[in-house]
Amino acid sequence: MPTLHWIGKDKVINHHREVPYKVLEHGYGFDAAKGKTKQPTGSGNMVIHGDNLEALKSLLPQYEGKVKCIYIDPPYNTGNEGWVYNDNVNDPRIKKWLGDVVGKEGEDLSRHDKWLCMMYPRLVLLHKLLAADGSIWVSMDDNEQANLKLIMDEIFGSGHFIADVIWRSSDASNNDAKTFSVDHNHTLVYAKSKEWQPNRLSRTEDDNAHYKNPDNDPRGPWFPGNVSSPNPRTNLRYDLVTPSGKRITPPKNGWRWSSERMTEMIERKEVIFSEDESRIVKKTFLADQKGITPSSNWWDIEDTGHNRNAKYELLKIFPEQSASEVFSTPKPTKFLNRILEVAAHKDSIILDSFAGSGTTAHAVLSLNLRDGGNRKFILIEMMDYAETITAERVTRVMQGYGEGKNKTEGTGGAFDYYTLGAPLFDAQQNLNEAVGVERIREYIWYSETRAALETPAATVKGKAAKVNPYYLGMHERTAYYFVFEAKALTTLDHELLGTLPTKGERTVIYADNCLLPKKFLEQHGIVFKKIPRDISRF
Questions:
Q1: 261 lies in a domain?
Q2: Which long-range CB contacts under 8 A does 216-219 form with residues at least 24 apart?
Q3: pLDDT at 520 over 50
Q4: Is it the case that residue 421 has pLDDT exceeding 50?
C-alpha cells in the first residue's frame, strides 16, 4: 500500500499518546423546557469548547468504540484567512502547536506539511472513538483530498474505504472561473469494519414509477431485468432450454445465474419469455425492494442542499448578524441529514470534532423530531465562537427561531456545554488532585479495561455488601482497587487487604506503597501498582 511522507510525520505519528489527558469541565446545561441550568442535563448531548486534539482524548474513557457516525469538515487549507472560520493552518494556535510538537523542523514545513501534521493525530483518536459498526465521513475539496485519502488509508486501512461521495456544493456555476467552475466537494467515507453496510434510503414515487404489472402477476408490479452476465463468465455458458423445448445458446458473457437456479426461476415464472421466446427477462418485484442503495453522487440540491441555502439557513437562525459575519460556506442541514440517514440509527452517538456553526447537531435534532429517535451529538469547536455561534445555534434550534411565517418550531431537547479543564498529571507527572478523585478513578479504570467506569457493586459470599470506597469494579474476573487519599499516603499491607472484600482470580491494587512480600502477592494473585509511577499514560 502506498504511504505518504512529509516533513514532521515522524513527530506526529504517535503524538496522540503524548497529548495531556484533561478533564472536561461542565459549564452549563440547557433544556428547551427549563432554560439554562448549572446542573448537567443528563441528555448525553455535548458541545465542547477547546482544542479538538485534547478534547478527543478526554472523550476516550467514556466513548472509545461507541461512536456510530463521525462527521468532520476540517480546514480545507485554501490559504484564505479572511473568514470567520479561519480555513488555514497558519492559525496562531496551530502554529504554536506545530512549534511545540515538531520543533525547529516545523519552520521548513509547507502548508501541506502543516495540514498533515495537524490532521494525523486527530484522525488516530477518531479511529479509536469509532464503533466497530461505525463509519467516518470527512469533507474536503481538491486542495487536500489526495493527501487526505492516503492518510485515511494508512490510519483506517485502504480496505476500509467505502466511497468518495461527490456533493454538489454550489447551486450555480461560476462564470468568472478561469478554467473550470468547481461546483462540488468530496466526502471520503471509511468504516471500522469491512463488513459495514449503509442504511438503505426510503423509496420515492419516482423510484417506483418504472415498476409495472402488464400481465397482472399476483405478486404485484415488477421491472424487467437482464438475464445475461455483465462480465465474462465461462462457467455460466450453457444452453438454456425454453418452456417449449427450444434450446438457446448463451450470450457472449454467459448467463447471470447457474443452470440450476435459472431452471428454478423459470418454474416460478420469475424468468419469463416473449411469445416467440426471442426475449428473456427476469422479473424484479417491487414488493421485494427494501429501499434504495445510496449513491456516491449527491447532485440533487433538493435532497442534500448547497452552500448558499446553508448560509440562508444560518442567517435565519441569527437574524442579528449580517451576511458577512456568518460562515461563508457552512454545510446545509439537508446534507448532514442524508449522511445520518445512511450512517446512523435512531439511538446512535454522532461526533463532529470540527463543529463550526453546529450543523451536525441541528441535523441530529431535526431527525429526532421527525422520527422520534434518540440520537446523541457531541460537538467540539476550538474557536472563540464555540459558545456564541455553535452552542447558541443548538439553543435556538431547540427553542425555535424566526417570526411569523418564517418561524421554525423548536425541536426540543437538551445539551451540556463543556470546556477543557486541568490535566490529570502535573508537570512533574504526579496526579493533579485538583481534578477530583472521581475523574482519576475513571481514568484508572479506563487505562486498565478500555471501558467506561460504572458504579460498582461489591458482594461478600454472594450477598450484597457496602461498596468499598477504593473499589473500581470487576472486569474479566479481575478486581480493581484504587487506594488513594488526597491528604495521606496509602500502604498495601495485611490490614488494608483485609478491608477489601471483593477478590477476583486476579486483583489489581493501586496504592502509594506496598509492604506485602512479592511471594505473598504472587500466591494470592495480587498485582500491586504504585501511584503515580504505574498509572498508564494513553
A1: yes
A2: 217/269, 217/283, 217/285, 219/283, 219/285, 219/287
A3: yes
A4: yes
How far is the first Cα of the chain from the last one, in angstroms, to the nearest whole number? 28
The Cα–Cα gap between 504 and 156 comes to 36
Residues in the chain: 538
Same domain, 64 and 129: yes
The average confidence (pLDDT) of the chain is 89
Whether the CB-CB separation of 58 and 420 falls below 8 Å is answered with: yes
Say if CB 144 and CB 77 are below 8 A apart: yes
Residues 191 and 217 in one domain: no
Closest CA to 443 of 66, 57, 53: 57
Task: Give the three-state DSSP class for 360.
Answer: helix
Render the burial of 113-150: b for 16+ CB within 10 Å, e for the rest.
bbbbbbbbbbbbbbbbbbbeebbbbbbbbebbbebbbb
List the grid coordinates of 66: 461507541
Q: What is the largest CA-CA distance in the chain?
A: 96
**CA gap 113, 105 in Å, rounded:** 11
CB 27 within 8 A of CB 443: no
Answer yes or no: do 64 and 181 share one domain: yes
Report DSSP letters for 31-47, one per residue.
ETTTEEESS------EE
Q: What is the CATH number of the domain that holds 62?
A: 3.40.50.150
The answer to whether residue 203 scores a pLDDT higher than 90 is no
Q: What angle do the packed helices 111-129 and 92-101 form, to 10 degrees?
A: 80
- Phi/psi-derived region of residue 157, left when phi > 0, alpha when psi is between -120 and 50, beta in every other case: left
Cell of 342: 445512511
Dist. CA 189–CA 74, nearest whole Å: 14
Measured from the Cβ of residue 513, the count of other Cβ atoms closer than 10 Å reads 13
Dist CA 295 CA 399 (whole Å): 34
Whether residues 411 and 466 share a domain: the answer is no
Extract the C-alpha cell encoding 399. Answer: 427553542
Residue given cell 417570526 in the structure block: 403
Q: Which amino acid is at 413?
A: G
Please give the Cα distance from 55 to 418 (Å, whole number): 10
Q: CA of 493: how far to CAs of 417, 496, 525, in Å?
A: 43, 5, 15
**For residue range 274-290, what is the model confidence (pLDDT) as tens digits?**
888 888 999 999 999 88
How far is it, in rounded angstroms, from Cα 510 to Cα 445?
11
Distances (CA, A) of 452 to 48, 123, 344, 382, 443: 19, 21, 22, 25, 9
Set of cell numbers at residue 505: 482470580
Q: 472: which residues sit within 8 A by CB, 6+ positions away? A: 441, 444, 445, 448, 453, 456, 480, 481, 482
Radius of gyration of the chain (CA): 29
| CA dist 502 → 176, 333, 402, 517 (Å) | 74, 51, 58, 21
CA nearest to 71, candidates 389, 348, 388: 348
Asked whether residue 453 falls in the same domain as residue 380, the answer is no
What whole-number percentage of the chain has pLDDT above 70?
91
pTM more than 0.90? no
Instruction: Give yes or no for a contact between 493 and 480, defined as CB atoms under 8 angstroms apart.
Output: no
Q: What's the domain count of the chain?
A: 3
